[in-house]
Amino acid sequence: MQATSTVHSDTISPKARMVVAGAREIFLAHGFSAATTDMIQRAAGVSKSTVYAYYPTKEKLFEAVVEAECEAAIQAVHSVAMHLNDLRDVLSTLARAYMTIFLSPSGLALFRAIIGEAPRFPQLARHFYLVGPSSMNNLVAQHIERSTRIGELDVSSVGLETAASIFTNLVRSEAQMQCLTHPGSVPSAAQQDQWINTAVVTFLRAFGTSNFNAGKA
User: Fold this and answer.
1) pLDDT of residue 157
2) What is the largest CA-CA distance in the chain?
3) 212, 152 in Cβ contact below 8 A?
4) C-alpha to C-alpha distances, 178 to 16, 102, 175, 182, 196, nearest whole angstrom
5) pTM, to two decimals
6) Whole-angstrom Cα distance, residue 114 to residue 23?
7) What is the pLDDT, as a whole number, of residue 216?
8) Sequence-separated (6 or more) residues with CB below 8 Å from residue 162
9) How far is Cα 55 from Cα 213, in angstroms, rounded to an integer?
10) Secondary-structure breakdown of the chain: helix, strand, coil percentages, each rounded to the nearest 5
11) Fewer beta carbons under 10 A from the terminal one: N or C of the chain?
12) CB 141 within 8 A of CB 76
């Protein structure tokens, strides 16, 4: 399912950007429930009336923060693999860019805030999925689709969207779980390389064709 973002940092007003920046600081530090409008307006350096003028509820402001974070992440990942042709290089580069984002302090803090509030605010959690992980799946699917056209991959057994989801989950699963359950620990470059290589090799063994394997022989 393709998500449509309503926040674009290059089109919103400077005051609105200040509000979102202040909200980002507070939400990531304190979570959704503990954050207050007073805290946000102080962090943003604006009046409370300015906050409400752009975002009438805390939920809408949180949505704006999530959209801004996810939009920046998707753009960053998209740019790194645009000019690569080798399939293994494309997958490895996508995985590394994605891992850098979701293992960053802000990425982990946002995920904790979302999951912590999901039972009380399921619409916010769903919104995060659509503009974040689902959009990442769509981006990966674009690269996979190109490789299926030239015969390097065959994802007909599961379909393009599911194949993309399988890859992003291979990249995210163990790495994210380790960092979420070991707060403060930072995985080494070697550990991240191992996670990435495992995800790429597993995916290629599942869906790589004889054409791809012959090209690497």
Assistant:
1) 97
2) 65
3) yes
4) 35, 12, 5, 6, 14
5) 0.84
6) 14
7) 61
8) 155
9) 53
10) 75, 0, 25
11) C
12) no
The 10s digit of each residue's pLDDT in 64-76 is 999 898 888 888 8
User: H or E element: which one contains 28?
Assistant: helix 14-34
d(CA 14, CA 182) in angstroms, rounded, equals: 37
Q: 98: part of which helix (H) or strand (E)?
A: helix 87-102
- What is the per-residue pLDDT for 5? 40
CA 163, 165, 168, 170 torsion-angle sign = negative
pLDDT at 4: 38
Both tokens assigned to 16: 């609105």
The answer to whether 93 touches 80, Cβ cutoff 8 Å, is yes
Structure tokens, 119:
């039972």
Q: What is the rounded average pLDDT for all residues in the chain?
A: 89
Phi, psi at 208, each rounded to 5°: -70, 140
The pLDDT tens digits for 3-38 are 434 444 456 789 999 999 999 999 999 989 899 999
Q: Is 98 exposed, middle or buried (0-12, 13-18, 19+ CB in 10 A)?
A: buried
Q: What angle do CA 149, 153, 154 make, to 5 degrees?
A: 90
Residue with tokens 């509000």: 19
- Residue 64 near residue 20 (C-beta atoms within 8 A): yes
